[in-house]
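Hi! If you just cloned this repository, the fastest way to understand the data is to look at a raw example. We've pasted two of them here, unedited. The first protein comes first, obviously.
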Amino acid sequence: MEWRQTCMLFLIFLFQVLVNEVRSQGGNTVFDIRQFGATGDGQSDSSKALEDAFSNACNVVGGRNQILVPEGTFMVTSAVFDGPCKGLIEFRVDGVIKASAGIIDDDKWVAFRYIDGLVITGEGTFDGFGESAWNLNDCKMNSQCKHLPTSIRLDFVKNSVVSGIHSLNSKFFHMKIYKCNNINVDGVHIIAPEDSPNTDGIHIGDSANINILNSVIATGDDCISMGPGNKNILIQNITCGPGHGISIGSLGKYNNEADISGITVQHCTLSQTMYGLRIKTWASDIQLTAYNITYDDVVMDNANHPILIDQEYCPSMGCDESKPSSVQIKDVWYKNIRGSSKSQSAVNLKCSSKYPCDNINFFNIDLLYQNSDNSVNANCKNVRGSASGIEKPPSCL
């Protein structure tokens, strides 16, 4: 475990060197989107100007080339930036990129694909204008619902950095990282109302060596969610809430899902969240394993369900409750988890009767009920493991 975290910290150092180099040199060439027809009046569509600026920067051989979104509000209907590029790319946002009202016939709004050595930075904002479309989201009632656009997508991107930006009121997920490798997300701010539907802060799928660091996430759904196929994910120094906490899953819904492993969540604070640290799987015949997962030094501030393994996950109607989950959860460590629970069920482990949770370990769990001396409890179902140190609530292992 220690060698893996050492490697991750070394990668973080290299990523920060890349960010600092780009910032200090300012890029070999700056492509200001206003030179390509963008107007920062908040009304004119600047989509083509953004794509043209990127295309020009992407085709410069070598160097570090910057696409600049200056101060102002630039309305963008949809923009897709495809590599590979011939040099390094910095996408700098100092102003506001604002989505058009309603929805578009796509599941992405701003997308970066097939790029090696991308830096997305600046103190500006991606405003998804989600309030114009949230009423069209029927996913709670319709399991086959059409997903609204994700604000920022990284697909098949590697050796890249996202730093400092703000994401506001996404229509669906704020950021989705898919099929990526070596991505560092550092110092971002993600904000949406508590009742906004499916506005996950950052969703990671089928990716490896991803670091989410030093960020503030307050949304209507998971602050960070991790689907199947992920390896070596470090989540560190995150302030989360409101929202649904930090989740692994859901797992076991689709055929050919890959195992998820090497997840570390540490030095985080979860405040007024519906869930805290959650692993969720569908009751289905889909087989995969979630393993080598560590939660360490996490503060709960009135999280409704601080520690939850739910292998009976079914957010909408139509699940076959007679089937146990075929997802194996094993080798999980909860260490130094402390704070307060909004419910008396502070620890709830509902594991599969077919593949019981194995080697689930608790060390120094210190949770109170709503900041009072009232007791909280722990419930275990189909779990094998151990507990030591502080046991509040008394362990059910």
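Ok, and the second one:
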Amino acid sequence: MSNSSFQHHQTAHCESGVISNLLGHYGLQISEPMAFGIGAGIFFGHLPFVKVNGVPGTTYRIWPGAIFQRVCKRLGIKMEIERFSSPEKGMEALDKIIGEGVPVGLLSSVYYLPYFPPSYRFHFNAHNLVVYGKEDGQYLVSDPVMETLTTIDPESLVQARFAKGFPAPKGKMYYPVDVPTSVSFKLPIKAGIEQACHYMLKIPVPLFGVKGIRYLAKKVANYAEKPGDRKATLYLGNIIRMQEEIGTGGAGFRFLYSAFLQEAAEYLNKPELSKLATEFTATGDLWRNFAFSAGRVCKSRSADAVSYKELSEMLQQCAASEEVFFRKLAQVKL
């Protein structure tokens, strides 16, 4: 019971990767960067009140599921989405749909996916993957962050789909029921860019967008006093982990968005987008440098570790770079 025609492509990020792989199966070719850009996936938020594994949450992309919803809406795709009150109902529904030869997108917890190396398995409950069939009691998996197709046993898949914690996946599964084979990306690209600029520059709450990066920078400057050195390394560790989460993260999302702008420049014949794409990769480099320095602080390599004040200044630099970029992007006439 498998869909041998399912094409697996490794991608940088799970949600935009699943979109690209799933829609490609139905003949709608959309690259991962294009899906990420149309879905306005680029974002920043620091949420001191939302604890992830006991430490404040930091996100470098829009909340899970939003990219998918926006891409479907903007491209006119109808998607069936289901959640379940029990694992039994969830697995029964999955078996029924893949039995009909339909690949299914699933929300899961990284912690319970045995094909991930142990160092990558932490309690992150918003990982997307595709199950496209079942053979010899094993589910056939296309996980976009993996190089090749893989499999998972039913017990692990139940644990991953019905993991506890925030956000609880509740067995969420989704699959297209109506996919147009040809669409114009022009208006969706425009809508995606406008929304990303709005979210990064104009949300009045100081926890989000460029303001959110500056808010985090001020917090980090005082980490030695509050929450204190021991907890500060946990806090910093989480900022880096969410930044570099399974190969993508904060810097990776910046490079992914740059790739989207390169594609958009060609599609819309707007060379200024290509120039901005190059500028934004430099912002990605700033984030990478921050992660590298913060990682040294976490490992207490005191001889060459930077101070919390210096880390704070690096974040202020990231904020300034992002503000300049998004203001320029908002001014491009699309």
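That's it. A detail worth noticing about the second one: The chain has eleven helices and eight strands.
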